[in-house]
Amino acid sequence: MASNLDVFGWFDNDYDEDGFRTCSVTGFDVHQSVENHVKLYGVTAVVFMLIGGIFALTVATTRWEYIGLLEAGDYYRHLSMHAWSLLIFWIIFMEIAILYVGGPMVLGRKLPIEWAAKLGYVVMVAGAIIIYYTIWTVTGNPVEDNAPLLTAYIPLEINPLFYVGAIVFVLGVTVAALPFFLALWYEKRENPGQTLPLVTFGAFVAGIIAVQSILGGLVAFSGGLAYQLGLAPWFDAGMYRQWFWIIGHGTQQINLVAMITVWYLFTHVIGGAEVVSEKVSRTAFILYLFFIVMGAAHHLMVDPGLSAGWRIWNTSYAFYGATFASLVHAFTIPAGLEAGRRKRGKGGGLFGWLTSAPWKNPMFSTSIFAIILFGFLGGITGVMMGQLQLNMSWHNTFATVGHFHSTVVLGTTVTFMGVVYFVIKTMFQREFVSPKLASFQPYLYCSAMAITALMMMYVGILYGIPRRTSEVVRNIPGTDFSIIGAAPLFHVFGIFALIAIAGGALFVLLAVGSLLFGKRIEPGEDDSLVPDGGLEMATDPEDPVHAYEMRGTFILCLIFLGVFVVAYVLNWFLLTQLWSIGV
Amino acid sequence: MTSPIKPPKGNWWDQPVNRRESIWLGLGVGWALVLFGWMSAFTRIGDQNPIGETYRVTEDELREKVQAFEEAAEQRDDGAYVPAGDDVYVVGYQFDWDGLPVVLETGQEYDFHLGSYDVQHGFSIRPEHAYSQQINLHVTPGKEWIIPMEFDEPGTYHVLCNEFCGEGHRGMHNTIIVEEGDDGE
User: Fold this and answer.
1) Do A199 and B124 touch (CB under 8 A)?
2) Of A333, A313, A363, A212, nearest to A261 (Cα)?
3) What is the predicted pLDDT for the residue at B185?
4) Which residues from B are below 8 Å from A538, CB to CB?
5) B142 falls within a domain
6) Where are the domains of chain A?
7) Which residues of chain A have pLDDT under 70?
8) DSSP 8-state class, residue A361
9) What CATH number was assigned to the domain covering residues A357-537?
10) Mean pLDDT in residue range B157-164
11) Domain contains B127
12) What ipTM describes this predicted complex?
């Protein structure tokens, strides 16, 4: 598909006459229709990361009131830009790319209905532009035109065009996802009775959760639009919140499942991991399918008008069905790595499989850091704040922001950075402009971001610092009161946020730099990614992986559970120090 | 057979599961039940639950109720209301809390009527002497949420809004003054 427009040579890999090539790393039969669209969505995602990252800088230096960069009105516009760019655009463009990898690429198929991939792309970009326009033109008059932030809660007066943009974007995502579902349909029709590979299965579950989310989003945004136009005065704040969070939280569950799918893929392809039990891993995915959308209810824990029973049932994902699923993956992914590496002779002692792992490979380190940080910081806090009573100390505090920076940034974004590195290496077939910096970047970014997120949680829980405000620590307009006690922790927050943003900038520089100036990798030249023994070892029926030791993983998981229990007890201790509240 | 990128062959469902994996699954189920059980039990045995009756209410009805509350209350020199009974109204609007400041006593249970005249707000409260003792409840227009509260320590409790409600959101602050009650120790 070498086109005159392809001035950077981004779309000119060598394919056979049927349009396929064999990937030297994964062994996938890659069709150009799949690969080119993965590249398109991936590169676009990086552009949105750049935009969102610029606003991360202005938002963080405003919340660090020592600098206090922006005025309130500007702050809310910048915050809206930051949220939509990173939480929605960067992540969802990446997710479409991941669906194409997990579906047609893993299965060695063409991308069906290519036009839908292109149309979906155009519609998504159009939706993004409408949203950007409506955010950037906000006047800030409280009874006319407020910044939407992420949530655009009615009845706050928000430009109706914003909801149109959101609907357009969501419809674009739907169209873009069609080729993925169709590829699976064809695959099952041609191979009846054959099980899908685990990665494809995970991507499929992510796809179904996406459908659930999109349906909720269409109701929320259409209702919001109708309300703002005066057509549906009965569509009230409570209804909007419930429908909105089906997409608002649902999209985060897509992130979760997509990210876990990538973890299975990368630990295998780069680290030599294997699936220790197809039954257990797939059952965990199925649990997500049934229970995870209920988790959206934890945004409504301290809302009026919902019965305690409804809240407890839903926020516990029906007895923590989805939390259990995450606990399962928390074991099976590292266990797969441990057993797979032991099988390859790379795992002496308790943790030899970890210490010998390819830590300098940013595709590997991003996934491992994401597993650890998502679990310890994001997962544990998510369960905390999802408890009916504990939610009173978390709701809408800066701690919430710390929680979702642990899940969406330290988990999803870090994982997806690894995906971008992977796409650069194996699909664009470019060397990194600086392999050393590429190895270093995940360490810089993850460590700084982890401390930033921790500080957010501390100031939120220990000082009750609210989220979504430009001033509260050093000054609250109209009163002498302020929460100045939190100022020292905000210095730590601010400094590490800046370091994290530098780490993010380094990522964008490396990605764009490698695409523009990276040395081209000729086919067959780069097999450095493949784990010792090759991937074929995983398919040897005489050497089942479940028979290998998993004691290192078991110890790590016990440590995790221990931290979980301690954090849980501490949170409850803090809550019970309060005055008596509620019936 | 155990590659995540190849279709698993044969009867993969009946492949044995590693013993440590099985133990972990048991621990996971147990922990999930503890999480659920404690949360559920605490609604019966605990003193801090975001639970109370909710009533539909129009803006006008709510304004009348708050006005009646303020008229019945004694107003001190500093402008703070001393409620006549056990009912306390705290209603958010762009950009302050109606019904505040209010003077309450320790050891007495008050019914807090939380609501909003206009958009969504966040009722976020902490005493000046211990910031970590803070709670947050969401308020939406059209609903009157009645949450009982009984303070056991005197002090100035600061109420902030923690849901974005417009550009003046950051200045949405008021106070609840809790004084030692007659029967307080």
Assistant:
1) no
2) A333
3) 44
4) 1-3, 6
5) yes
6) 357-537
7) 1-2, 524-528
8) -
9) 1.20.210.10
10) 96
11) yes
12) 0.95
